[in-house]
Amino acid sequence: MSARPLIHIGYHKTATTWMQRQLFTPSHGYHQIADHEDVFRHIVEPHGLRFSAQAMQAHIQQALPQLKTGEVPVISSEILSGHPFFGGRESDVYAARLAQIAPDARILISIRAQMKILPSVYMQYVLRGGTTPYQDFFSAENPLGFFTFSPDHFKYDRLVGLYQQTFGKENVCVVMQESLRSDINRLAKDIADFSGNTLFDGLKTSQSKENASYPEYAVPLLRRINHLKKNVLNPTPMFNLGSVADFLFRTVGYACRSQPMKKNFGDRRPVSDFVSKTFDGYYHDSNQRLSVLLDNKVDLSKYS
Question: What is the pTM of this model?
Fold first, then answer.
């Protein structure tokens, strides 16, 4: 390849959409050479017995001539970190495939405090049509032959360590979602420096919240509405109201964001409360190991 790509693998719910829409743009010296559909079709979807690195390599080679001088080619898709609803068990497979596709790539991994990311993942589950109560979602055991959510997916040291071993420690950068609030300009500069982006001269846009979740107190209503529509997580509902259910979902979600509802229920975060109680201390050792992997250069003091 004529230019070293920056491959951003997620995790989910770590400001990945903001990076894709507002940071990894030509105005900042980046050029995205593959979208989610490309990543899914060439990396994620192929069965292990028929996966070939050549398909994605060909896609990249076709995209590279579109780059202007100095632009960094970027592939950013959080699905490369594994599916959080089902334990992210395929994340090591994707790492191996990326190593075949672009062994010289720089790898960007974005993380977030586990006590924040777990509730956010569940709210995304509801948004995608999930019907399982959060208590069962987080505590479900794997039935024989099938997989459910696993909290171990968010033991970041395991995946970071794997990428460091695969691509070289100097070619893996870990950034925290919390940096978007504390020092977004520093975060953007760090990514630019890591990726070799010499065109970056500061953010051209301010942070805006992407894909904001509905409030947690809306969960009992929203997940029950999901029983009334066909979706990827509930393909055969007892009653399928189609677009009517979609409208009802959005209407209820919007109403729950209203000021009267916030005034009465704004402090209620039942999903976060459950996560804090259930996983208190669960990630401590993992975060300690992650700190060592990152040479103690990243402040994880607010991580569980």
Answer: 0.93
